[in-house]
Amino acid sequence: MSVKLNTRQVGDVSVVDVSGRITLGEGSSALRDCLRDLMAQNNKKILLNLSEVSYIDSSGIGELVSGFTSVANSGGTLKLLGLTKRVKDLLQITKLYTVFDVHEEEAHAVRAFA
Amino acid sequence: MEPTLQTLLDQDYPSTLESVDEAETVILKAAADVGFDEDEQHRIGMSVRECMVNAVVHGNRYNRNKVVHVGVTRSCEPEAGEKFTIRIVDQGEGFEIKEVPDPLEENNLLRHSGRGLFLMGAFMDDVKVRKAVPVGTEVTLVKSVPPQQ
After folding, report:
1. Phi and psi angles of residue B36, each rounded to the nearest 5 degrees, phi first
2. pLDDT of A11-58, one tens digit each?
3. Rounded alpha-carbon distances, angstroms, from residue A100 to A37, A44, A54, A92, B36
4. Order of all β-strands in the sheet with A45-56
5. What pTM, to 2 d.p., does this model score?
6. Is the model more confident about B148 or about B17?
7. What is the distance of C-alpha B141 from the center of its chain?
8. What are phi and psi of A15, to 5 degrees?
9. Contact status of B109 with chain A (Cβ, < 8 Å)
10. I want to staple B8 with a disulfide (CB 3.0 to 4.6 A). Which of A10, B62, B72, B91 is the partner?
11. Contact residues for A31 (Cβ-Cβ < 8 A; gap 6+)
12. pLDDT above 90 covers what percent of chain B?
């Protein structure tokens, strides 16, 4: 299963529900396109819900990092929600866990944008 | 204990992203058959994926005339114990491992790429990179086989 992305609004926060695999090719480019579209529409608060992401490779990590910096450079904020143990481990190993603002509950995460 | 060597895979793959998926799937099954648990299978599969991506994308640069050779063995030696060894060889121009930036250095943390080799090292017991003969790069990934229950 490749990646699936669904975007919804919670107040002024754009929540992107991501499921499947974020790997080199279709998965990582779909995430890149989604974030690019949100920024083009001037969405400044983006929450990536990764709770249904089963697998992420270094290319997927690269897309998360690029998304994080691109959103920040455009004056916005990108946060992460619901990391699975494997994704959390991966971000810890790569020392990126503390770079991202990571939340376990959506309501908390949305409030954290205020 | 007599030394043994069993070949589990010995195959050339075309330089495509589909080959990455195929090699990962085949090696994951071999790892499961050998007795690795789900977490170890995940680490092995991810290492194979990262290594195959490097071979296809950076080594062979998707060149249709070049292949990626993948070999998998299960070996047993009295001193070393049982090993699951994956050897992935591309036909690219090669690279100097000393020139690969450390992805954990603060200045490199937010780089888009450059974490593949690091992840292989984190997930496998041993990783060796050397120039292949006559061309290319050979990466060897080793994981100790868990004792049978």
Report:
1. -70, 140
2. 999 999 999 999 998 889 999 999 999 999 999 999 999 999 999 999
3. 21, 16, 19, 11, 32
4. A4-10, A13-22, A45-56, A77-81, A102-103
5. 0.92
6. B17
7. 5
8. -100, 125
9. yes
10. B72
11. A3, A5, A18, A22, A60, A63, A64, A67
12. 87
Using CA atoms, how far apart are residues B53 and B104, in angstroms rounded to an integer?
A: 20
Does the CB of B26 have a partner CB in chain A at under 8 Å?
A: no
Kindly list the distances between the CA atom of residue B57 and the CA atoms of B109, B121, B143, in Å, as whole numbers in the listed order.
22, 19, 25
* A55-79: average pLDDT: 96
DSSP conformational letter for B73: E
Report the residue of chain B nearest A92, measured CA to CA: B104
Just give the CATH number of A4-112.
3.30.750.24
- Number of A–B residue contacts, CB under 8 Å: 46
* Structural domains of chain B, count: 1
The pLDDT assigned to A2 comes to: 82
CB B125, CB B119: distance < 8 Å: no
Is a pLDDT exceeding 90 seen at residue A110?
yes
CB contact under 8 A, B116 and A68: no
